[in-house]
Amino acid sequence: MELLRHIVVFIHLTGFAVLFGAWAVEAFGGRRRFTSLMTIGMTIAAVAGLALAAPWGIEYDLNYVKLGVKLGVLLVIGALLGIGTGRQRKTGAVPPAMFWSVGVLTLLNAGIAVIWR
Ligand code: HEM
Question: Which of 45, 47, 61, 105 pairs as cysteine with 15 (C-beta 3.0–4.6 A)?
C-alpha cells in the first residue's frame, strides 16, 4: 500500500511537471497561449491528488484544511484554463492576467504542498 501511494505521488508530481512545464515554455517562449498540454497536466495532478486525499498507505493524519485549499486553487486553475482557452479561440489571445495567474497559482499549490505541514 505504501509503495502504491508513493507511485501515485510520483504520478501527481508528473502532472504538476507537465502543467508547469507547458506553462513555462509559453511564458518564456513569449507566445503566452494556453495549450492542451496544460489541461492534460492539470487533469493528471487533479486525479492523482484526489486519490491521495484519502487516508490510505499512511500512518499519520492528513491535513484536510490544506487539501481543501489546494483543491480550491486547482479549481480556479481549471476555470482559468477553460475560460482562457475559450477566449483564445474567439479572439486569438489569452488575457495576460489569466495567463500569469495559471503559473502563479500552480507554483502556489506546489508551495502549499511542500511548506504547509
Ligand atoms: C495544480 C495543482 C497541484 C499541484 C501543483 C500540487 C503539487 C504537489 C506537490 C509538489 C506535492 C509533493 C509535496 C511533498 O511530497 O512534500 C504534492 C503532494 C500532495 N498533493 Fe498536491 N498538488 C496539486 C493539487 C492537489 C489536489 C487538488 C489535491 C487533493 C485535494 C492534492 C493532494 C496532495 C496530497 C495528499 C499530497 C501528499 C502526498 C503524500 O505525501 O502522501 N494535490 N502536491
Answer: 45
Task: Identify the CA nearest to 16 among candidates 116, 117, 114, 115.
Answer: 114
Cβ 112 under 6 angstroms from ligand 1: no
In tens, the pLDDT along 8-20 reads 999 999 999 999 9
Q: Whose CA is nearest to atom 17 of ligand 1?
A: 113
Task: Please tell me the total count of domains within the chain.
Answer: 1
CATH number at residue 100: 1.20.120
User: How many other CB atoms are found less than 10 A from the CB of residue 26?
Assistant: 19
* C-beta neighbour count of 16 within 10 angstroms: 21
Smallest CA separation from ligand 1 atom 1, residue: 106
Sign of CA dihedral 51, 66, 109, 10: negative
pTM: 0.95
Q: Which domain holds residue 39?
A: 2-115
